[in-house]
Structure formats: structure tokens, C-alpha cells
Amino acid sequence: MIAPRPVVPVTSSSPAFQHTRAMSTLLRRFLYRESIPGPGREEHIMWPPLSMPQGLGNRMEKRSTLGHRLLSHTAGLLVLYTYALVILVNGGWKLGLSREEKERQGKLGANRASLWALDREPYRGVNHRFYTDKETDHRTHYCESGNTSRDSELVILLHGFPDSYYSYRHQLSSTSLKYAHLVVPDLPGFGGSDSLPNYSPAQVLSTVARFILAMKSKKNHDRCIIVGHDWGAAITCRLASECPKGTFSRAIIINGLHPTVFRNNFTHNLTSFTRTAKSTVFFHHPLHVLFSPSRAKRDLARLTKSWTKNITPILSQARKSHYIFPFRIPWMPLARRLPTMGDYYVLRQVSKMAKCHDEASYLANSLGPGVPECAGANGTGFGYGASVKARKGQELDDMISYYRDGLSFDPWEEKDKPEALRRTPGPHEQLIKEQDAATGQGLGEGRFKCPAIVIWGSKDTFYAPQLVHHGWGKMFCYDIEMGGSATVMLCRSGHWAHVESRGRMVVNGVLEWCVEEGENIKIRRSEEEGDKERRDDLEDHVEGVRELIRLVPIWYGGGESMVNCY
Predict the structure, then answer these.
(1) Domain count across the chain
(2) pTM of the model
(3) Residue 438, exposed/middle/buried by CB under 10 A (0-12, 13-18, 19+)?
(4) Cα 145 from Cα 176, distance rounded (Å)
(5) Is 70 helix (H, G, I), strand (E, B) or coil?
(6) Domain encompassing residue 238
(7) Where are the alpha helices (DSSP H) in 125-230?
(8) How do residues 99-151 score in pLDDT, each as one tens digit?
(9) Which of 450, 529, 556, 566 is deepest in the core (most CB within 10 A)?
(10) Which of 259, 262, 257, 253 shows the shortest CA–CA distance to 488?
(11) Which residues are CB-neighbours of 523 under 8 A, at least 6 positions away?
């Protein structure tokens, strides 16, 4: 018996239109393996289920990945040659060394000696130190200041790209933070720290985590405040969310992205626009535009609104992060050309954005120690590692690899973590993972295990706030002892909020507030008699993160700041 033909109820009476719509729907189901309803509420096409030919899905996925790489590399070359043209027009390339360039190189050498020579203090009360990882022999250079006793509060500060410990010079030399033990390491591959084989989460996060555990082992308590800016903020977010509860007492994020927040916002925007586009007449029945121009006009308005809301932030972020595309070019000698060409033209422009009035100091901060500095040693007999000495002419290669090796979004497996941080997820965490898998939102994996404070300069030229800043509240947690979390918006500050004169007053004030919060906890925990004057000052400290609503405007010098508590 011959099976009856499928029923195709339609509103239009044109046989040609019926045939065209049926064939287009069949083609879409063949390509997308899904049932797509027609524009009318009563319209549906009943076709037998179709399957993707064997191997076609893998071939389409490979072609999509290849297309993304080709687009990224093409954009990288375009950005690279655009900057080359700008430098050429501005006279950045000249035959031979001009007098100005010779003076600039002389200043660079002097500033390198000032920042990286191990036989002197870079700033008053700031000392060079080294930590050697017993498992990997990786040597981390760090600077410390403040109260280094075993009972003082430990504050770890992680810098961003293309910085070093120099990024936190105002915090290291601050007299208001003298009661805390400030530790600023150079991230692996930056400044005076050794290079790594690669810069995946298994290497970078594990190396930084072991360094932090080593610093904590020097204290009589388990409290540790971790601060991160830019790349340091991304690493801070991953450590504060993927390490067990109790590893950190509080996290402070300064103008950086949370990988999970960014990925969720990006996916949500892209999915929302795609869903809107698929529901329009232009996607389903292009010929229907001729028969129903009024609906086509409405759909065009919805599509335009969805584009403005969802795709414009993605394009804005691509424009702000255009420098990343050259970094991802497969050939490293070409990838490193952007920051180095034109006598470090790009880095000199970045120094102005970072509010550093001395270009030579900022270049010395980015390029790390030179050959004379690598030959010295500090008071304990330690010096810079062999990989630091071998970077001459290639100082930025390791920094660029942070953008190439998947540090932000690749998983950090339990087997790669330090043994002290390995754990088995509890029933509650397992339930969160199952919910995330069901909803596709992935919020559980990025939730902080400690209270956090996000300090955001709204004039940031590197991040689109719709993708990076929105959604932080979903990642916060509340601790019974440490209290809640907060976001602090600084309307007059930019990407380097902790360096700018007004912004650093807020950052230093928040750090001091967090240190006093930890001191209060120590007083409540201990019955020992301490410094009475210091104890009286701490007892006046109002508990609760909501106090920042009153304090931040005072630190910031008036209005134009906003604090949200969670």
C-alpha cells in the first residue's frame, strides 16, 4: 500500500508558493536537523524526519573552525598592517638611530636598572624576592612591602598585560597599607619570573596557586586577600571560583573580565539574535516578503532592535580588543611585531593610557630586566632565572602566549591542581553542575567561593561593559564571617583605575577596609591582648560591605561613583 502524501496546510492559495515554501523548509530541516515552524500560527509542514548524512556534521564543524581561524588571522594581518601604516606616517621608522631615539634608549637602560637591579630597593620599603617552586623549579620574582610578620594580613596582587609588579607601585609604597603584607609577583613569563613551556590553565593557574600557597604557609592564619587587574583579574576569578572554599578570604577585581561572565554574555547575545533572526520572515520564507510587506516591515524592525542590543556590543568588544588578533597569528615572529615595531610605538601609546608620564619607566616595566640586571643577585644570593636572561629581543613572546594558549576558557583539571587544592565536588556542587548542563548557562562553575569586590572604571577603553561587566552579581557569594560582595563603579576612571590619582584612592581605601576587616576577625577569634591603640581603631570599623556606600564617595573625592551591595 502506498503511503499518503504529507499534508501541507497553508494560507496562500498559490500552488507555486506552496511548492517553494515546502522545498525551502525541507532544505532547512536537512541542514539544521530541526523542525522550523512557518510564520503563521496554523502553518506547519509535516515531513518525515530527516537525518544528517554520515560525516557531514564533522565536515561542517571543521569548515566552521577553519573559517573562524581564517577570519581571525585575516583580521590580525589587517590590524598589523594598519598600525605599520600609522607608524610610518608618524615617522616611527627611520634609517639609523636619531638623537631622540638614542636618548630614549639611554633612559630605558637607566629605568631598567632602577626597577630591576636586585642590589637596591625600587621604592622605599619595597624589596625584591624570589620563590622557587619545588615541583617544577620555576622561579617567581615578586616584590613585597609592609608588615611581613606571621600575624599580618596577606594581600596578593596580580598585574595584567603588559605590566609587572610596577603596576602596583602606588599600593606597595602606600603608608595607609603598612599594617598589611603586600606581595606582588610577576606572572609567569612577565618581568623577572621564569617562562613556562606553555600558558594553559594547567601551567599558569597551577604555578600561581602554588606560589600563593607558599606565601600563606608563612602565616599563622589562613586568610588571604587576592587582587587582580586585567589578566590578573581573569586569573583571580578562576582561582577564587575553582579553588576550594577557604583558600581566599576575599577577592578584589579591578577592570578585568570574568571568563564565565564573558562567555555567558557573548553566548546569550549571539543566541538571542540568532533566535530573533530565525523567527523572521526573511529566514523562513523570503518570498513571503512579496505577499506580506507589513509583516516584513515589523520583522525588519525587530531584527534591527535585536542587532543593536545583542550584536553591537560584540562588535564593540572586537574593536576594543583589536590588538588581540595579531597576537593569534600562528607565526610568532609576525605576532610579536605589533608591540615591538616602530621602537615600541604601541607600548609607548599604552603608557599614556596607563597614566604613566615617563615612557621609559613603562617600557622598563613591560620589557623586564636587561642583561646587566640579570647578572646581579639580591641579598639572599638569588638572581633572575636562565629563561629571563634568554628573552633578549623576545621579551613579549611569553606575554603574547597568554592570548594564544586558552588560559581564559580552557578547563583547569583537578589532576593539574596542587594537591592541597584538589577536591571532590559535594552533592550541592554536583547539583549545580547538572543544572548548568540542563540550562546551558554554566553559572555554577564561575561562582566565587569567597566574597568579592569589583572595582570598575567606566571609561575603560578595552572592555565593552555589556559583555564584561553585566552579570557579576550572579557570581557572588555571601560568607557568614566575611560578609557580602559589592561592585564599585568609578565614572571618571579608566582601565588602570588603581594607577589614576582618583581611582587609586578608592583602591587603596578598599584594600585598607578589607585588611581592617581581617584584623577584626582576628580580634574576634583571639582572646589575646594586642596593641590597644590599634585595637580601638579596629573596633570602630563598621562591619559589613554596605559601609562602602558611605566611604567610596569620600575616597573618590565627591560624587560620580556608585556602589551596589550583594
Answers:
(1) 2
(2) 0.81
(3) exposed
(4) 12
(5) helix
(6) 107-261+404-527+537-565
(7) 169-172, 201-216
(8) 666 777 778 888 888 889 888 888 888 999 999 988 888 999 999 998 888 98
(9) 450
(10) 253
(11) 530, 535, 538, 539
